[in-house]
Write a structure and sequence with these properties.
The complex is a heterodimer of chains A (256) and B (260).
Chain A lengths: L7 E9 L5 E10 L4 E5 L6 H9 L6 E6 L2 E2 L4 H6 L1 E4 L11 H11 L4 H14 L15 H13 L5 E5 L7 H16 L3 E5 L3 H7 L2 E6 L2 E7 H8 L13 H10 L3
Chain B lengths: L2 H21 L1 H4 L1 H17 L1 H4 L1 E2 L2 E2 H31 L4 H5 L5 H30 L9 H25 L3 H17 L12 H8 L2 H14 L6 H25 L6
The chains are: A alpha/beta (256), B mainly alpha (260).
């Protein structure tokens, strides 16, 4: 295990889909260990493609990706052992019991059931799903399904958690609870990569940010540095004003 | 992931599939049992009594190996093709395995093992039913050959089902092959007749049907009679396994239809 390597290092990453769509045009990105990192961009900018390539869900066209120093092509298993993923779409079998979804995921990481079952019970209880663990996943509400996906992503005790719009469609109270839970994980040393359209929350939670547009990183750095560099406090004062990050985001990604 | 971890991953995939197939046993086990009962009743009891013997054995005993093979082929194939397609298309549950350190070869092994288990289980059920219809007169000439052909045929059609599951883009893509390719090949592979009872031109077609060789070897295990030498049946089986393993390895390793 390479302790000094960044949690994620992406160099000149390119992806062209079979349809001809160019999703990534040479993205380079580095996320230090222990960071809470926001990857922001409009729909279709390439965020999910970066995540899918990093986690082995999509093949890349060019470039390199390493997770804690493990190249995803050469040391695939070691790289994947470090990662937990909460995908954008709900992707589990709704006819399975809630706890089985988490325990089976542990199995794919080589964790025996004797270890996985108590671990899954604790995670589901911590995430407020204790009373639902023996019910079919189809009985869960939208917010509960999201929390189940977080439990599933944490069952292999990853060092690097990737959250692709984890709070989409979740009500305000549940969202706040999830952020508090994730902040606690971040403080315990877990590296987190977050994509979200809730920019005010990203501004509060994340130490570093990268903004991607049309397959290219248009800005990256510490949250404060990026905002300080681009935020214009005087601009458009008379109209609607979002958070500082929202104004920077629009400035960097708008079509104008 | 060490060897023990890989075993856990394999066990997880297989256990999940076996739990699924027993949970929906009405869809997975019952149809073949009912269909086989009808075959035994119509082709064995009703028509069989008029046909008499085939290659020197009672017609009912002659059709049993072919009908067991039919159950193995269709169940092994449909189990793997459907579970893979479902996990790829309906819930995208395949992502759970793709993000994990489970290597591609283990993913293939996990998916085809469920098909092998279902194929062999349903084949055993059909064989049990045949005992009832043959009045406990079932012949078992060579149990080792019977078991080898049952297991290896289930393996072949599990592998073939996985190729179908990878390529299928809709549920129609899963149903087309069993309906328009597999079932005709099985029926024309000598389930109900000996190849020697066909005219010469039809025999030529039968010899290019790979399922003919599987039924031939399987029937030898039960009755000790064969239309063609046993080693040829084993060679065809071995060739099909090698070709299908290579195709599946290429498809899964490169992420064809999955990661592009």
């Amino acid at each position: 295990m390479n302790m000094s390597a960044p949690a994620l290092k992406i160099t000149d990453l390119k992806k062209t889909y079979a349809t001809g769509t160019v999703a990534l045009k040479g993205v380079s990105l580095e996320i230090p260990e222990g960071d809470f990192f926001a990857l922001l961009g409009p729909n279709g900018a390439g965020k999910t493609t970066i995540i899918a390539i990093t986690t082995g869900l999509v093949n890349k066209t060019g470039g390199t990706v390493s997770v804690f120093g493990h190249d995803i092509d050469k040391e695939t298993e070691l790289a994947k052992m470090q990662i937990g993923l909460v995908g954008q779409e709900v992707n589990f079998n709704p006819f399975e019991k809630t706890i089985n979804i988490v325990v089976n995921q542990a199995g794919y990481y080589g964790i025996p059931r004797s270890v996985a079952i108590p671990r899954a019970r604790k995670l589901l209880t911590d995430l407020g799903l204790g009373e639902k663990m023996d019910q079919n996943a189809m009985t869960l509400s939208g917010g509960m399904k999201r929390r189940l996906m977080i439990a599933r992503a944490l069952v292999n005790e990853p060092r690097f958690l990737i959250l692709d719009e984890p709070t989409a469609g979740v009500d305000v109270e549940l969202r706040r609870g999830m952020w508090e839970y994730l902040t606690g994980l971040s403080k315990s040393g877990l590296t987190i990569l977050l994509t979200t359209h809730y920019l005010e929350e990203a501004e509060q939670l994340c130490k570093h940010v990268a903004i991607i547009n049309k397959g290219e990183i248009v800005e990256q750095g510490t949250m404060e540095a990026v905002i300080a560099k681009h935020h214009d406090a005087e601009a458009g004062k008379e109209g609607y004003r979002g958070s500082r990050l929202e104004e920077v985001f629009l400035k960097l990604t708008s079509e104008k | 992931m060490d060897t023990y971890g890989k075993w856990i991953s394999f066990y997880t995939m297989l256990r999940k599939d076996i739990v699924r197939m027993f949970r929906i046993w009405v869809q997975t086990f019952l149809p073949s049992v009912i269909t086989s009962c009808l075959y035994f009743l119509i082709f064995g009891t009703v028509l069989g009594s008029r046909i008499g013997t085939m290659q020197g054995v009672d017609y009912m005993s002659f059709v049993v190996p072919g009908l067991v093979m039919l159950a193995i082929v269709t169940n092994a194939y449909s189990n793997t093709s459907f579970t893979f397609f479902q996990s790829k298309f309906f819930f995208r549950g395949i992502d759970e395995i793709l993000v994990s350190p489970t290597p591609p070869w283990l993913l293939i092994l996990g998916f085809i093992s469920g098909g092998i288990v279902r194929g062999v289980l349903v084949g055993a059920l059909v064989l049990l039913i045949s005992v009832f219809f043959t009045g406990l007169q079932l012949s078992l000439y060579n149990v080792a050959v019977i078991f080898l052909f049952a297991a290896l045929t289930a393996l072949v059609f599990s592998l073939a089902g996985l190729v179908n599951g990878v390529y299928a883009k809709s549920i129609d893509g899963i149903n087309l092959v069993p309906t328009f390719v597999l079932t005709p090949l099985v029926y024309l592979g000598g389930v109900f007749y000996s190849v020697h009872s066909l005219p010469a031109w039809a025999q030529g077609f039968t010899y290019v049907n790979p399922i003919f060789y599987l039924i031939n070897g399987f029937r030898y295990g039960f009755l000790g009679i064969a239309d063609i030498a046993l080693w040829i049946s084993f060679a065809v089986l071995g060739g099909m396994i090698a070709a299908l393993v290579a195709i599946n390895w290429y498809l899964i390793r490169t992420g064809m239809g999955l990661k592009q």
